[in-house]
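Problem 12. The chain below contains 259 residues. Write out its predicted structure in token notation.
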Amino acid sequence: MPSPLPLPPRAAAVSELLNAAARLFRTTVAKCLPLAMLAALAIELPVLTLLARNQTLDIWHPPTDPQFWMLYSVGLLTLLWLMGAAMLRQGTMVRGQPINLAGELRHSASRLLVLVPALFLVMVALATIVNLFQIAPAWYLRVLALLPVLYLVVCFWVLMPIVMFEPGGALTALVRSLRLVQPLWWKCCFCVVIGLGITFVCLLAAMAVLGLVLGPGAVTAGSVLNAISTVLIIGLTGSVWLFFSALAIVLYSAASSSA
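Solution.
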């Protein structure tokens, strides 16, 4: 049986929380990456379908094809399901318990009935705030919409661990997330912002290396080149999601350690 992985307490510094998230990511990435890559593939399936039809996705003019949105909905649910299972596996490895794929998938599927409504309520709240500030007469009032949006994003960063690791419904999880993060909001905010910055730099470096290796000078057939780049991008996407899943677990553990 693997040994438990200690997590920092509530009083830990930002550097300790980030180090713990990186350590959890390194410890669990080998056994969790397949689930994360399948999740990334699921959400990319509608785009890959468009590319197979020699079409491109324009975010300003989204497709009107019902098949695209049906695939997107299925892909989004599959993403939440598999990433929930990956987070459960990370939590199992933190406790030093043996992993159980069937149990992880079953529990994650059952918690989708809570996670999906909770995320919907979060998106409604964020969209409402943005729309209220958009009707403001001055541009600086519109910019102020970023502040409550940032506040809520940080507060709900631990929503998924709460849903996966604790019982209760969507409203209970939302209230629990707010109460846990509020006393540590600045610390959590620094962790999220620094984590996003580090991830952005790492992604730029990885894409630069990918461009050099698979650039125009590479002697590879076009279809093979596209397949290799797609697999690498899906792997990078899954790795990023696993890191932020680990960060969410660390912040949730620290916030609830004495809550």
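Discussion. The chain is about 75% helix and 0% strand. Students who got a different answer should revisit the alignment rule from Section 12.3.
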